[in-house]
Design goal:
Blueprint: E1 3-9, E2 13-20, E3 23-27, H1 32-42, E4 45-50, H2 62-69, E5 72-73, E6 84-87, E7 90-96, E8 105-109, E9 112-114, H3 132-143, E10 150-152, H4 158-168, H5 173-180, E11 189-190, H6 191-197, H7 206-214, H8 222-230
Parallel strand pairs: 3-4, 4-5, 9-10
Antiparallel strand pairs: 1-2, 2-3, 6-7, 7-8, 8-9, 10-11
Length: 233
């Protein structure tokens, strides 16, 4: 049985510890000090340090965590798609999700997804690679996860993401319901939530298709709808 602890740093960045059997994995450890203190309090041994991708706002805690713990750093080359990280007899699975960056990856532990900057709570990351098709394929992969999957993101962008969702779908009552449950101290959603409020999970919904049509954007195929949605700012 794995447990996950979320830590906030640098205003809206989010770090994570996944732990089980007294072994821990740090992901995007910018909150290094708090993560080390939590590990000491719980008697955890930090055995691995890694990142959802290599952007500088996700990696600043790596050095501190590694020096203080003797943990092993898992770089991109160490984490092929489908790779299994063992923690106390339980598994954390690596899912490659290129799009935001080419090295973007998510971590799937039991019923929880660490989405990095691929999937936020209510939106997705910027496609800095410019490879819209691969990003589309990555999002489709995450959409296929069980609906009860808990989604933890690399940033807390909930308020801004829901403002954009409301701009596109002002009649969507699920947006206000989602916002009513939002708590900055514990930021999360589920795949089921994303299908109700996240425009980038809803590009096949008639309400979103109608917005695209009104703007004169192509909507005939799913791929066209995705491209069209990605053009809206």
């Amino acid at each position: 049985m794995l447990e996950i602890r979320q830590f906030r740093y640098a205003h809206d960045n989010l770090s994570y510890l996944i732990y089980g059997g007294k072994q821990a994995l740090a992901i995007d450890g910018g909150a290094a000090g708090e993560m080390l203190s939590f590990s000491r309090e719980r008697g955890l041994t930090l055995v691995y340090v890694t990142n959802t991708h290599d952007h500088a706002d996700h990696t600043p805690g790596n050095g501190t965590l590694l020096r203080s713990s003797g943990a092993t750093f898992l770089a991109d080359a160490d984490l092929p798609d489908g790779y299994r990280i063992d923690l106390g007899g339980s598994a954390v699975h690596v899912l490659h999700t290129p799009g935001h960056t080419y090295d973007s990856r998510c971590f799937y532990a039991e019923n929880t997804l660490i989405g990095g900057d691929t999937l936020f709570n209510g939106t997705i990351g910027n496609c800095f690679t410019g490879d819209i098709r691969r990003f589309y394929q990555s999002i489709k992969r995450l959409m296929a996860l069980p609906e009860e999957t808990i989604v933890y993101a690399g940033h807390d962008y909930v308020k801004d993401s829901m403002a954009f969702a409301k701009y596109l779908e002002p009649e969507n009552v699920e947006i206000d319901r989602f916002l009513s449950r939002y708590a900055p101290a514990h930021v999360y959603s589920t795949i089921a939530d994303e299908k109700l409020v996240n425009p980038y999970f809803r590009f096949n919904e008639e309400s979103i298709v109608a917005v695209l049509r009104k703007r004169g954007l192509p909507v005939q195929t799913e791929w066209e709808r995705w491209q069209s949605l990605m053009r809206i700012e």
